[in-house]
Amino acid sequence: MNSHALNVIEFPRTLALISERATSPLGGERVRELRPATDRDVIEREHARVAAVRSLVAAEEPWHLHGVPDARSALLRLRVEGASLAPPDLLVLGALLRSSRITRDSLRGERASPIVAAVLAAQIEPLVANKNIEDTIERTIDEDGQVRDDASSTLKKIRRELKGSQGELVKLLERAMAKLEPHQRVADMSVTVRNGRFVIPVRREAQGVVGGIVHDASATGGTLFVEPPAAVEAGNRIRELQIEEVEEIDRILSELTEKLRPHREALGASLEALITLDSLVARARYAIEFRCAPAELSDPTEGFAVIEGRHPLLVAQGIDVVPFDLEMLPNERTLLISGPNTGGKTVLLKALGLFSALVQSGIPAPVDVGSRIAIFDNIYA
Fold first, then answer.
1. Domains of the chain by range and CATH?
2. Using an 8 Å Cβ cutoff, are 53 and 117 in contact?
């Protein structure tokens, strides 16, 4: 259908309204991308899916989609052979695995009837479940996207030694500061880090007394950040441990990435299925909220019948909408609408076109039982 007519009947605005019912930005985006179809089988299949999800959402114990993490960037990087994923990427793929597994189990369990499961089979089947990798990611990466100490015994050992070495070095530097004369000290002085090295702040004139390596200076130049000679060897060992830590983290991330790489296509299919389900959830919630009854589909030559039709954008504004009934019989070709200015003629005409556009996009129209909505090849406005 031509985009100008869809804009005139406020189809994009209505999609935006419906997209707000999605549980994720990806689901909302998918709703806004919906466009009218003309194949009756496709339209009926889409409405069957919306009805199936609607029955789940409206149940006494409502079904909830577990989540739709935006794993698109992580999946793209997973396609690059030899490249390791960063902890945040692994974390989002772990969330994808968890959501996929929980959603699949919930739709295969007692919550969903065999009929609902059959209707949603195309969305349920791609949902992957790999508890082993899911648990491995959880054991490796914490909630803040950092590699856990116990991700490997080697990393745990390195970090334990690193923490101990840093603590000892801080004590050594604090003793060095305590030996400084008052005129050599800086107010509120404490051990700090400059360029990756532990240092103490001293006045510029005290540098000759303290010795060591100057790693930085204050903006005025009056304070120098010095690594005393006694701290150099300990600082070097800390640097070695930090390098070992980075290397071990890289090894862990590479190993975990390679476990995920063979499953990238399945993960992509799972994400797509979750996005589609979220789009169905948004449409189902909208149908419940706007009291949309299932409507019969009809050929334009068979006419149409709208019972208790209500423009969704007016309903969304909380306006006391007066519903309308309108029918055209198969042998009728012209509809003449008359009335005073601001009497609702344009709104009614837009609503008629909008109802067909919505229904042909797999979205229930805000009408009552007994309505027949025509399927058009195009709409002109």
1. 3-7+292-374 (3.40.50.300), 153-246 (1.10.1420.10)
2. no
